[in-house]
C-alpha cells in the first residue's frame, strides 16, 4: 500500500483547486489525478469535458468552482444507482460471493455487526467448506459480532447443505438475518458457478434470497473487477461491497465499478475494525473524495 501513503486523490486535487486561476495546467492536472485514482479513461474524459463546458458557460476563472463542479458530477453519477439493501423478508437471506483474498470473510463479520447495530438478530452460515481455516476464521468474526454460526457438520460437507441448515436454523429460531459465506474457488472438478447455482436453488426452496453481494478489493481496482466477472455473469449478484477503501488513491474505482457492472455499491469497508463497514451514501462519499 505504498502508493496510498505517498499519493492520494485528495492531495492531488488540492493542488488543482489551490491554484490562482483556471488554465491549461488545470485540465492536465485534473485529468492526471482522475486517471491515477482509477476513474478509468472514459469516465475521466467525460468528467473533464463536462467541467470544461460548465467553466466556459459560466465564464469562471476560480479553481474552487472546478472543485464544486467535480463534486456535483461525482455525486450525480454515483446516485444513478440505488444503494439500499433489500432486507424486508424474514428471514432476509444474503449470499456473499467473491474471489479469495478480497476480504470476504472479514466483511461478513463486519456485516453481521452492522446489522446487529440496528437490533437485528443474525446467523452466519460457513458454506465455504473447502477451506477449514475459512470456517474457523468466519466463526471468530461472527462471534465477535454477536452472531450465531452454523458450521459444517463434517469436513468437506456439501456447501449447499450448510446453506440449507443455516436458513433452517433461522426459520426455527426466528432469526431475522441470514448471511451465507460461499467459496471463492473450488478444490474439486466441479465448477465454482455450478456450486453457487446449487446453493441458490437450495436456499430459494426455503426462503427468498434478498441479496447476493459481491465483495471487491478496492485497492486492486479494475484488475479485481476482471477477476470477479464470472460472479457477475452467473452468480445473480444484486449489489457490491468494496473493501479496503480507506484511502482515496483508488477512489475513482467507485464510479467506474458501478458504471461497468450496472450494479449498485451497497456497503463500503474503510478500515480493519469490526465496526468499519458502513452503508454507501453517494453524497457523503463525493464530499470525502473531492472535498
Describe this structure in words.
This protein is of the alpha/beta class. The protein starts with a helix and ends with a helix. Helix 6 packs parallel to helix 7 and helix 8 packs parallel to helix 9 (192-204). It is built from 13 helices and 8 strands.
Structure characteristics:
291 residues; alpha/beta; eight-stranded mixed sheet; elongated
Shape: elongated
Overall structural class, as computed from helix and strand content, comes to alpha/beta
Q: Roughly what percent helix? A: 40-55%
Number of helices: 13
Spans where pLDDT lies below 50 across 5 or more residues? 1-5
Strands across the major sheet, in which order? 3-2-4-1-5-6-7-8
Distance between the termini: 22 Å
Query: What is the helix/strand order?
Result: HHHHHEHEHEHEHEHHEHEEH
What is the percentage of strand-forming residues? 5-15%
Number of strands: 8
Mean pLDDT: 89
Major beta-sheet overview: 8 strands, mixed
Taking Cα atoms only, what radius of gyration do you get, to the nearest Å? 21 Å
Question: What would a concise description of this structure say?
Answer:
The chain is of the alpha/beta class and about 290 residues long. The protein is built from 13 helices and eight strands.
Amino acid at each position: 500500500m505504498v502508493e496510498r501513503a505517498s499519493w492520494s486523490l485528495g492531495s492531488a486535487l488540492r493542488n488543482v483547486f489551490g491554484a490562482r486561476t483556471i488554465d491549461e495546467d488545470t485540465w492536465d492536472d485534473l485529468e492526471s489525478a482522475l486517471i491515477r485514482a482509477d476513474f478509468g479513461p472514459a469516465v475521466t474524459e467525460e468528467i473533464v469535458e463536462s467541467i470544461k463546458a460548465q467553466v466556459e458557460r459560466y465564464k469562471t476563472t476560480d479553481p474552487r468552482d472546478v472543485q464544486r463542479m467535480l463534486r456535483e458530477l461525482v455525486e450525480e453519477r454515483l446516485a444513478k444507482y440505488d444503494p439500499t439493501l433489500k432486507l424486508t423478508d424474514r428471514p432476509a437471506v444474503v449470499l456473499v460471493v467473491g474471489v479469495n483474498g478480497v476480504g470476504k470473510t472479514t466483511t461478513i463479520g463486519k456485516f453481521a455487526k452492522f446489522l446487529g447495530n440496528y437490533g437485528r438478530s443474525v446467523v452466519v452460515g460457513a458454506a465455504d467448506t473447502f477451506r477449514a481455516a475459512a470456517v474457523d476464521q468466519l466463526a471468530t468474526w461472527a462471534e465477535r459480532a454477536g452472531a450465531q454460526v452454523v458450521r459444517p457438520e463434517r469436513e468437506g460437507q456439501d456447501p449447499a447443505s450448510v446453506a440449507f441448515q443455516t436458513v433452517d436454523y433461522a426459520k426455527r429460531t426466528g432469526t431475522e438475518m441470514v448471511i451465507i459465506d460461499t467459496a471463492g474457488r473450488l478444490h474439486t472438478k466441479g465448477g465454482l458457478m455450478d456450486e453457487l447455482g446449487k446453493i441458490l436453488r437450495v436456499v430459494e426452496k426455503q426462503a427468498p434470497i434478498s441479496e447476493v453481494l459481491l465483495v471487491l478489493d478496492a485497492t486492486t481496482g479494475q484488475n479485481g473487477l476482471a477477476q470477479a466477472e464470472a460472479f457477475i455473469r452467473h452468480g445473480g449478484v444484486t449489489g457490491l461491497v468494496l473493501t479496503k477503501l480507506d484511502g482515496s488513491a483508488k477512489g475513482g474505482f467507485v464510479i467506474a465499478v458501478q458504471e461497468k457492472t450496472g450494479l449498485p455499491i451497497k456497503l463500503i469497508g474503510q478500515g480493519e475494525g469490526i465496526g468499519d463497514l458502513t452503508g454507501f451514501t453517494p453524497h457523503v462519499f463525493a464530499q470525502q473524495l473531492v472535498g
